[in-house]
Write a structure and sequence with these properties.
The complex is a heterodimer. By secondary structure, chain A is an all-beta fold. Helices cover 0% and strands 51% of the residues of chain A. Chain A has strands at 3-5, 10-14, 19-21, 24-26, 33-39, 46-52, 60-61, 64-69, 74-79, 88-95, 104-106, 110-115. In chain A, the strands form 3 sheets. In chain A, strands 2, 5, 6, 10, 11 and 12 form a 6-stranded mixed beta sheet that branches. Chain A has a 4-stranded antiparallel beta sheet with strand order 3-9-8-7, with no helix packed on it. In chain A, strands 1-4 form a two-stranded antiparallel ribbon. Chain A is globular. Chain B has strands at residues 4-7, 10-13, 18-25, 31-37, 44-50, 53-57, 64-70, 73-79, 87-94, 105-106, 110-114. In chain B, a hairpin with a 2-residue loop joins strand 5 and strand 6 (53-57). The chains are: A mainly beta, B mainly beta. At the A-B interface, strand 5, strand 6 and strand 11 of A face strand 5, strand 9 and strand 10 of B.
């Protein structure tokens, strides 16, 4: 069965520094998608970045990049130049194989606190 | 209105009450989802609707009853809930096939407290 593991319940980072949030996954399916979402205290889950299992290059979106190591089954999120507004819960997710829908399974999340 | 809108944002109900959560999406998506987010647990997928048909029901107790009258609206009807049902209920939508970078777009959630 597919599974997502986030081993860091909480992280601190100084403003303007880079931070890496860990995510490992388990699946036997060769085709899968990996996602990172941000959830501020307001509750809304905000999509950050996507990595497909067949993508040759690591995904990047502005200050977000995904360190995809397929052999290790890890998909760590790197946030560069942290800002105070980056303080939030961060969830790693994997898309289960499905046809008509886009079901995601989520990890337990990492709470990131950016300090001034 | 844009994106995915959920109402009410906060709901307190007794165990004998009947209430409903509403979700509306303005993105033209054809799939909608209910997730439950409890403290210190991963998000749990409850229901999936594709083209207004329920395609997934993850062993959710019958006290939760979903309804999808059209592709833009999704409801979660609640009755005789238990205190352990207190959680943040998130609605999401997506466009069709689970492939590529098709993402789930989430609403801000409905925070439910059962007394």
């Amino acid at each position: 069965a597919q599974k997502i593991t986030q081993t860091q319940p909480g992280m601190f980072v100084q403003e303007k520094e880079a931070v890496t949030l860990d995510c490992t996954y388990d699946t036997s399916d060769p085709s899968y998608g990996l996602f990172w979402y941000k959830q501020p205290s307001s509750g809304e889950m905000i999509f950050l970045i996507y990595q497909g299992s067949y993508d040759q290059q690591n995904a990047t979106e502005g200050r977000y990049s995904l360190n995809f190591q397929k052999a290790r089954k890890s998909a760590n999120l790197v946030i560069s130049a942290s800002q105070l507004g980056d303080s939030a819960m961060y969830f790693c997710a994997m898309r289960e194989p499905s046809g008509a829908t886009n079901k995601l399974i989520f990890g337990t999340g990492t709470l990131l606190a950016v300090q001034p | 209105e844009t994106g995915v809108t959920q109402t009410p944002r906060h709901l307190v109900m007794g165990m004998t009450n009947k209430k409903s959560l509403k979700c509306e999406q303005h993105l033209g998506h054809n799939a909608m989802y209910w997730y439950k987010q409890s403290a210190k647990k991963p998000l749990e997928l409850m229901f999936v609707y594709s083209l207004e048909e329920r395609v997934e029901n993850n062993s959710v107790p019958s006290r939760f009853s979903p309804e999808c009258p059209n592709s833009s609206h999704l409801f979660l009807h609640l009755h005789t809930l238990q205190p352990e049902d207190s959680a943040l209920y998130l609605c999401a939508s997506s466009q069709g096939q689970g492939s590529g970078a098709n993402v789930l777009t989430f609403g801000a959630g409905s925070r439910l407290t059962v007394l």
